[in-house]
Every structure is written in C-alpha cells, then in structure tokens.
Fold this protein.
Amino acid sequence: MRIVIAEDSAVIRAGLAEVLAYRGHDVVAAVGNAEDLLAAISEHHPDAAVVDVRVAPDHPGTGVLVFSQYIETRHAADLLGAAPGGGAAGVGYLLKDRVGNVAEFVEALSRVAAGGTALDPEVVTQLLRASRRTDGLGALTAREHDVLSLMAEGRSNGAIADTLVISERAVEKHIANIFSKLGLAPSDADHRRVLAVLRYLGS
C-alpha cells in the first residue's frame, strides 16, 4: 500500500513510518499537520492515510484511519459522514492504547484502504451515545442491532457468526433485513455495507 502519515508527534510519526515500511508498505509522506496532509494526498494519491484526530481534515479525499489517544466524537462522526457515497474510500478509528499488535493495526489499515471500516468497539459506543439520528434504525430487531454494531467494527460475516454463535447464513439474512429496513437498494454489497454503518453512526 501507498500510505501517508499525519501525526503531530515526531516520535510516533517516525515509529509508524518504520513499522509500515518494515511490513513492506510504501510511506510516501509523513507530515505533522492537516494542511500538509491534504497537500501530500493531492501529490501522492495514496491508498490510505493514518492520521491523529488532532490533525485529521474533514474531507481528506482518501481512505483514512484515525489512530489517536482519545475519542473526539464530533470529529469522528464528521469524518465518517463525509465518506464518499461510492464506498471508494474507507474509514477507521482506532485507539492507540487498545491496539494489541502490529498485525492487527496493519490489517485494519488494509480494510480501510480497500474501502471498508475499522472501528474500535469503544469508538462505536461513544458515537452511538452521541448519535441522535434514527433513520429506520428503530425498526431493527435486537439481533439486527448486534449484527450492525459488529459490522461497524469492521467484522466479516464469518467473524460476526462466531461472535454471536449463529450460522453465517443467519448473518447474511440479518444483513439483508438491515439493508431493507434502512432503505438501501440492491447494489454493490460492500457499498451497501458501508452505507449501513454510516447510517448507524451518523450524527
């Protein structure tokens, strides 16, 4: 992957660059503020950007994985809501002290680069508390809420099935019901999945 890093701490910025380069990824720029981040994205057209929430712009124009020490719900909701409708750019928000290992971090970054989501469960919880939109969510059953919450964490259908101790076929049925109740017409499956998550987390 071609990656841009935006982190105001020089030590963390250098550490991220070293870890990603060691894993075989191309860090095309490492900057310390939002203005330089936007310039780097415009110049290099990366697959994804790793940014601290303090320097994250609202409309980055690429997949963004926020990697921060704390949760800023308003900015996180704005960033999630600004994701392109076509699902071309993914979104993620991980907390620095809750990422267990490098492989987990790189896997989340890969999901974001591919147009998916990667959200720490605590981020999901905080955004839901701050959320005021329902937009059809009230029609979901408790089990459908559980499935959608796990989708928001970036889990695959198989991982959702394992977590909820149900079959993968049952997960697929729940997801189809979620799409229907949220009014998401049949289209690209990944596109609808991202839109469902954004609806769930929208402010």
Summary: The chain has nine helices and six strands. The first helix runs from residue 10 to 22.
